[in-house]
Amino acid sequence: MSRIGKRPIPLPAGVTITSESNGTVTVKGPKGSLVRQFHPEMLLHQENGALVVERPTDSQQHRALHGLTRTLMANMIEGVTNGYSKQLEIQGTGYRAAVQNNVLQLNVGYSHSIEVWARDGITFTVANDPVSRNPVVTIAGIDKERVGQTAAEIRKLRKPEPYKGKGIRYKGEVVRRKQGKTGGKGGKGKK
Question: Model-level pTM?
Answer without folding.
Answer: 0.85
